[in-house]
Amino acid sequence: MLLERIYDEDLSQTSYLIACQASGEALVVDPRRDIQQYLDLAAQHGLRITAVTETHLHADFLSGTRELAAATGATAYVPGTGGEDWQYGFEAERLHDHDTLTLGRITVTARHTPGHTPEHLSYLITDGAFADEPGYILTGDFVFSGDLGRPDLLDEAVGMHDTRFAGAKQLFTSLKEVFLALPDHVQVFPGHGSGSACGKAIGALPSTSVGYERHFAWWGPYLKNDDEQGFIDELLDGQPDAHAYFARMKRQNQEGPALLGERTPPREVGAEELSRGLEQGTIALVDTRPVAQVHAGTVPGALNIPVLGKAASHIAWAFDPDTDDAELVVLAEDAATAAEYGDHFVRVGVDALTGFVPSLEGLPQTVPPVISPAELERQRSEGTVPRLLDVRTRTEHAAGTIPGAQQLSAGKVLFHQGELPAEGEGPLVTFCQSGLRNTVAASALRRAGHDVVELDGSYAAWAQWDAAQPDHGAQPGTADQGGTQHPDRSAQPGTTDDERTA
Length: 502
Fold this sequence. Notes:
The protein is of the alpha/beta class. 28% of the residues lie in helices and 20% in strands. It folds into three domains: 2-255, 4-Layer Sandwich (Metallo-beta-lactamase, Chain A); 267-357, Oxidized Rhodanese, domain 1 (3-Layer(aba) Sandwich), CATH 3.40.250.10; 370-483, 3-Layer(aba) Sandwich (Oxidized Rhodanese, domain 1). It is built from 16 helices and 24 strands. Pfam families: Lactamase_B, Rhodanese.
C-alpha cells in the first residue's frame, strides 16, 4: 500500500493519495483545485487515479474533486449523508456510512462522522495484503492532531443560526461511537495542520493515533467521564474568527466548482495596456513586494499580496470574484512565477489572473499613507479621535489592543464594510500585529474607496512605544471609549503575523 500526504502550507490543508501498488489503482481524498501535483505523483509511482473523493463540503478551499476526475477519467465520489440540505449539486457517486471502495487489495470504508458538518465522512483504510482490519483513518475535519473540527463554522461563516450546539453534540457522539471504538494502534491522518481556521488549536504533527488522542487530547477526559456538557462548553469557547470568503467556498463546493481544464499561462502585460485597464477598472494589479517596498510607492488601487506562500489566503481576503469582474495582473519576474500565484489563487476560486508585469516602471505611483505610534498618540492628545481598526483576530484583540480600537479581522473587512468604525475625524487607521495582515486589508479597503492610513509597525510597534512612556502600566485592563480595553502590559503583545490563516 502507498499512502502519500500532500500538504498545502498556504491553507494548512492536506490531501491524500492512497494506492495499491500491485494493481496500480489510486484514490485521491480532498484534492485541491490545482491538480498537477496529483498527476505528477501518480506518474512517478506508475499509478492510475481511478477514484476521487472528499470528506465534506469544505469552507476554506475550493475542492478539486471535479477537476481531477475530469482530467483522469476517475470516478468522483462525494458524501451522500447529512440530509437534503447537504447534498452535492453535481454528478458524482454518493457514499454513505459503511460504504466501501476497493483498490486492488485495499479497502476504503466510509464512516459518517458528523459534527464539523452534518454530512462529514471519515475513511478507514484496510491494507488487505497485511491485515484484515483497518490500520489507518483519514479524518478530514473531524479529528486533528490534538484538536477537533469546529462545529460553529456554519454559524460563524455561512450565516446559520445556533447550529454549533447540534454540531457539538454530534461531534461528541461521533467520537464516542466511531473514533474511540477503534483500536489504539490505528493511525490518524487529518485534513488540516496548524494554522487552519477549521479548528481552535490544531497541532503541527502530520499524523497521530487513536490511542494518543484518546489519552492526551484535551477532549479525552470529557469522553472518559461521559461529560457531554463540559465537552460542549470547552469546544465552543474561544473559537477563532472565520474568514468571510468561507461562505462562498461552501456554496461553490456544493454547486460544483467550475472546471478549469487546460489553463493558459499568464501573459506579460505592457505598461500602456495596464494603465488603461487600471483607469477603466477592468484590471486590478497585485503588488507582490514586501510591505516596506510597497510603502515607498505602489500603483494606486493595487492589492498588496506580499507572500507567495500565503497568496490563496490573502487574495481571498482582498478580492471577491462574486462582485468584482476585473482581471488580475500580478507583479512577477516571469510567467512561471506568475503561474505559481495563479495556482494559489484558484485554490480559493479566484480564477481571474490573466497576466503579469515584471516591474512597475512607467506606471503611476502613489505612496500609501502611514502613521507612527508617536504621531498617532500626539494627535490623540490634541483631541483628534481616530477611527482605529484592529484587523487581528478576536482573541488577539481581547488580549490587548490600542484604546478605542474596533476589531474586524482582515479576512472580513472587505465583506463587512458596513461594520467599519463610524465616520469621525480623519481617515481610518488600521493595524494588525506587525503589519503583514494589515497591508492586505488596507490595500483592499483603499481599492474599495476608503481613506486608510496604516499604523507603522502595527500593534507591536505601538506596544513598544507605549511601554516606553512614563505612565507605562497605569490602569491595565480598564475600559476605554468604544468598549475596548487597554492591553495587559505585563503580557506579550499577542501572536505574530507569521501569517496564520486565522
